[in-house]
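Summary for the lay section of the report: proteins are chains of building blocks that fold into shapes. Here we show the chain for Copper-binding protein and then a coded description of the shape we predicted for it.
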Amino acid sequence: MKKIVNLAIITALLSAAPFGVYAASDSAASASPSATSSASADAMSEGEIRKVDKDAKKITIKHGELKNLDMPAMTMVFQVKDPAMLDKVKQGDKVSFVAEKVGGQFTVTQIEVKQ
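The coded shape description reads as follows.
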């Protein structure tokens, strides 16, 4: 019985090997500069500033779907990567932004006020 279990494990590992190689080569390709910039463009979301809290270095945004985080539209509080971002926005501004999970916290890493 032990030989059958070992054989099953070895077979599973060998059959998965081609997929592991493919995944590794695919991730290497996505690390190229052009792939990174398109990934950032894909991560851009639309929203409206509801509150700016400079003391806490947080921003509340009513946003559409955050595809890169697999999150539906809602209003939520985000940390900001750079507190200087908070000087560029005010309540009511329509924005395009990128949110990422950084250190377990949802964080705005880029933000632009829409004209």
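Put simply, here is one thing we learned. The helical segments are 2-30, 33-43.
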